[in-house]
């Protein structure tokens, strides 16, 4: 999985994912590394929605996140 070390305020994900969450899948595709997650996201466009599966406090969650660019 991919450990979240911080989130950018104002982005859709900032309201759903927190520091220290571990992203384990994007749109059902496992993310074993940041490179794997980046490869999945590089095939998406700004404004697309993706399902993010993550672990927080030993519990698994899935949220829908709209992709945006980092400013």
Question: Which SSEs are present, and which pair or pack?
Answer:
Layout: E1 2-3, E2 22-26, E3 29-30, H1 34-42, E4 49-56, E5 59-66
Can you walk me through this structure?
The protein is mainly beta and 71 residues long. It has one helix and five strands, in the order E-E-E-H-E-E. Strands 1, 2, 3, 4 and 5 form a five-stranded antiparallel β-sheet that branches. It is globular and about 30 Å long. The model has no long low-confidence stretch (mean pLDDT 93).
SSE series: EEEHEE
How many individual helices?
A: 1
Termini gap: 25 Å
What's the story with the biggest beta sheet? 5 strands, antiparallel
Short description:
This protein has 71 residues and is mostly beta strands. The chain is 13% helix and 35% strand. Strands 1, 2, 3, 4 and 5 form a 5-stranded antiparallel β-sheet that branches.
């Amino acid at each position: 999985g991919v450990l979240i070390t911080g989130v950018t305020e104002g982005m859709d994900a900032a309201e759903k994912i927190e520091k220290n969450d571990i992203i384990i899948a994007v749109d059902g595709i496992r993310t074993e590394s940041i490179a794997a997650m980046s490869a999945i996201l590089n095939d998406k466009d700004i404004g697309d929605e993706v399902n993010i599966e993550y672990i927080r406090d030993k519990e698994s969650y899935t949220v829908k996140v709209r992709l945006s660019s980092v400013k």
